[in-house]
Amino acid sequence: MIRYVLLDVDDTLLDFRACARVCADAALRDQGHTLSSEALDDFMQTFHTVNDSLWHRMEKGEITREGIFARRFPMILEAAELPGNGRRMERIFRRELQVAAVPVDGAMELLEYLHARYPLYVASNATYAQQHGRLEAAGMRGYIREIFASAQVGASKPDPQFFRKCLEGMADEGMTEAGEKVAPEDVVMIGDSLHADIEGAAAFGMHTIWLSRTGGETVSAEWTVKALCEIKNIL
Ligand SMILES: [Mg+2]
To answer: Over the Cα atoms of the chain, what is R_g?
Structure first.
C-alpha cells in the first residue's frame, strides 16, 4: 500500500527549462552578451543538449557532479561559438538557480492535494541548498517533509543505494513507529526522468508514476501521466 510520496524536482515540480533560461541570461549578461530572445532560445538549445548529455554521463557513473559543473559552460560556449569565462558563468548560473523557481503547471495544486493525504518527500540529484532555496522561493517547501539530495545522501538516482537511503531517512524522520522500517512498496516515486526516477525506483521495488509530457510509453512505469493533474486520479 502506498504510504509515502517521493517527488523529483526538476521538470516535475519546477520548470527547469524556464528557470535555466533566466539564470543563463544573467550569466551571459555578466560576460557582456545581451542576446535577443531568439538568440537566447538558440543558446538554450545548446545548453540543454550539452547539459542533458553531461547528466546522463553522471547517471551512468562516468563523471561526477563537480565534473558537470567544471565542463558545462566551457562546453556550451564552445558549441555556441561565444567567447566568455565558462567557469565564472557556471558560478553565476548556479547562484541565480538557488532562487529561480518557475513551477510546472499544476505543481502547487498537486502538492496541496497530496499533502493532505501522504507525507511528501523530495528526491533530487541536485544539491540540497539549491533545491531547498528554489522550493522555498516557489512556496512549496512547507509541503515537503524532507529533501533527499544526492550529494548529502552519498549516491545518485538511479543507484539503489540512493533509494535505500531515502527509505532510511523516512523511517528516521518519525512518521513510523520506533524501529519500524519503510519498505519500497510503501513508496511511490513521481518523476520525469525515465532512467533516473522511474527505472531506478522500479528496480528498487517502489511504485512509479512517470510524468511523460510527450506521451511516451514504457513498461517500466506502473502509471504514466502527461500532466500532473492526472495524478489525482491515481493517488
Ligand atoms: Mg527531473
So the answer is: 18
